[in-house]
Specification:
The protein is mostly helical and about 90 residues long. It folds into 2 domains: about 50 residues, no CATH class; about 40 residues, no CATH class. Helices cover about 50% and strands about 0% of the residues. It contains 3 helices and no strands. Helix 2 packs across helix 3. The longest helix is centred in the C-terminal third of the chain and has 22 residues. It starts with 8 loop residues before the first helix and ends with a helix.
């Protein structure tokens, strides 16, 4: 409670959702892009988010379209390619 006591309920819900859907045990290092995953880590304010970001949504979408039975390197590569495509599509639609 000491870490999240002053957070809005939406921020807590987004953080828990990210952990649950990403199936992460813990997120203990700063992501390089703005992310709700950085909320409890000692990161710069530029990458801390109070809600799911476009990067978070792209990661979750990419995670769930990537084959889970492939070797780890192929999974990581697939997630990266899918995220890039998702983010490029979002930019093109704006």
């Amino acid at each position: 409670m000491t870490k999240v006591g002053e957070w809005e309920i939406g921020t807590i819900a987004d953080y828990i959702s990210m952990l649950a859907f990403a199936r992460a045990k813990t997120i203990d290092k700063c992501q390089r892009v703005p992310s709700i995953a950085n909320a409890l880590v000692d990161c710069s304010d530029g990458v801390r988010a109070k809600a799911l970001t476009a990067f978070d949504v792209a990661y979750l979408k990419a995670l769930y379209v990537t084959a889970g039975d492939a070797p780890r390197r192929l999974q990581e590569s697939g997630i990266s390619r899918a995220m890039l495509a998702i983010l490029e599509k979002q930019i093109a639609e704006k």
